[in-house]
Amino acid sequence: MIDKTIPYVKLQMERSISQALPDRQLPEGYQFCFYTPGDERDWQAIETSVGEFDNLSEAQRYFEKNFAPYPDELAKRMTFVTDPSGKKVATCTAWWAKEGGPQFHWLAVMPEAQGQGIATFLAVKVTALLEELYPDQPAMLHTQTWNYPAITIYQKLGYTFVSGTKDFEKGMSILKDLAKRKG
Prior knowledge:
alpha+beta; 7 strands; 22% strand
């Protein structure tokens, strides 16, 4: 879940292609799947549940503007995890950056499904998917200090911070303070 009590600083991370990815499994009864038409409502619900959007209407507008124009791409890039009842509880997308390169995008796990390794599983799956779609290119992702638990996952998979971005030093200072408090 996003922690909006932390000062917000946008950060960029990159992963070189030479690093092997760990093998991760989903908890028993959970399933991995790709987007099918109609899943946009699930994406909106998941992203809103973690605080990325204030309401479903805001999430819907984002989806319609940024994802809906690419239905064929969604079917091979947007991923979900379903719980044992079949409810979609997590999502992540192997998208592209404005510059055209691989973009790890919108990792989220509903609060009731967090703490089971689902985020790490999806991070591994989507990073591997980016490597398939974009051979020989480093994967990029944008995150923020509010999302510090996910940053730990990204670092374990070999993503490193890109220095020189706006407020980079401020962001690193915030993350260092958080690590001291949590550690």
